[in-house]
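Lecture notes, part 5. Sequence design as translation. It can be helpful to think of inverse folding as translation between two languages: the language of shapes and the language of residues. The source text, in structure tokens, appears below.
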């Protein structure tokens, strides 16, 4: 029973761009059916792919996910751009060029890309990545 966070957000919130934690999935082993997890949607968590609350103040929220079935391996998205969260859909394959262009052309680059900025939700820029 995964939920798509974008489907529940207002149109302006759908434009938020997360940080890319890694360009590829994380293989999570031996989750049990019915286990509850909070998937990180912002890319800032130090406990990837799960949420540690780092999103506070960014406008992002964790995705509440209940493991739908017992299986040996779940391929969980860690680029945070999947269309089927929390599962990887391969979006990370072409993402590096898109992210570089988005950050280069960010309209908030001059005013928002500072060391005290946690995350530029316009382009996914993070000062300490």
């Amino acid at each position: 029973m995964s939920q798509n966070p974008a489907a529940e957000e207002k149109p302006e919130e759908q434009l938020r761009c997360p940080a890319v934690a890694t360009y590829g999935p994380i293989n999570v082993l031996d989750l049990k059916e019915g286990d509850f997890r909070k998937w990180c949607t912002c890319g800032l968590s130090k406990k990837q792919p799960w949420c540690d609350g780092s999103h506070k103040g960014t406008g992002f929220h964790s995705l509440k996910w209940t493991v739908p079935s017992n299986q040996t391996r779940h391929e969980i998205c860690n680029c945070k751009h999947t269309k089927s969260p929390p599962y990887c859909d391969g979006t990370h394959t072409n993402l590096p060029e898109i992210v570089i262009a988005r950050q280069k052309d960010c309209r908030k680059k001059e005013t928002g890309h500072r060391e005290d900025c946690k995350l530029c939700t316009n382009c996914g820029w993070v000062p300490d990545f």
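The translated text above is only one of many valid answers, since several sequences can fold into similar shapes. The first strand starts at residue 26 and ends at 29.
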